[in-house]
Predict the structure.
Amino acid sequence: MSAERNAFVTTQMDPEGEIWILDRSGREEMLDTSAAPPIGGLFAHLAWAGDSLLYAARAGDQRGVWAADTLNSGHGAELWVRNASEPSASEDGSVIIYRARGTNSANTLWKANRAGREVSQVAANALHLVIHPTGEQAIFVQRADDGLMTPWRVALDGGMPEEIAHVNARNPDISNDGLLLAFASTRAGDDGVPRNGITYCELRNCSATIRDLEAPGLPQQGTPIRWNPDDTGVAYVSAENIWIQPLNGRARWLTQFTDGRTIRGFAWSPKSRKLAVLRERTRTDIVLFKGVLTRRDVRSTP
């Protein structure tokens, strides 16, 4: 506050998002600075649909899922569907699911074709969506009757959702061959202390095939996980980089960023030729407000 008590200085923090396109090994290939920052929350979903990259973002007062043409360095991104998030696309990009408000739920799983048409509601109260590579079913997380967040599946051509396994789950992903399911989970160790790790299982019989991976540095929440291109490990974000936890072996770095930006989401293209990484930094500006009325000014104003 100034001496005259009619002005003050504060800071304003604005997120700035960038999409980096890397080769499958994590080396930089191209930088796209045209991407809007993510909508919010702890991480952002990225999904490839052909050569287009889908991601949730905001631009001014427009929020929703945007589509960027990666063949044109991402420039000219267009709003694909309004007020939606968590896009996920089948391997050929012909079927896309996303989360948006529905008839009976603010978190409804919707299905559409690549053009954004043939839209239909599939399941209510669905979070952390991922589609099967064939486009025939979707996996999501839902709160069970006892309050536990567990993995569920639903056929996209109709049918009732069913619980896959009664185990804590978040941010699921399906392997590229469609046979395995992985998700982040918090489970009690032998000593009773909760630990964060990655759980994977056979999709067709999850409860009987559950296995745990350590995934050192995995945060309690807020990181997407993805099967690597050959399904030999699961990738996740720790600090400012992507790590891969093999099904057998120790976790290793995939990227080696050192500039302090946060990774909000990542996804390999269906043919595993490219890795898209959405990175975010926060810009801090000094803002001066002048002509501010103090309480004393308000009381003395006739």
Observations:
- DSSP finds one helix and 24 strands in the chain.
- The CA atoms of residues 68 and 76 lie 7 Å apart.
- The longest strand covers residues 7-23.
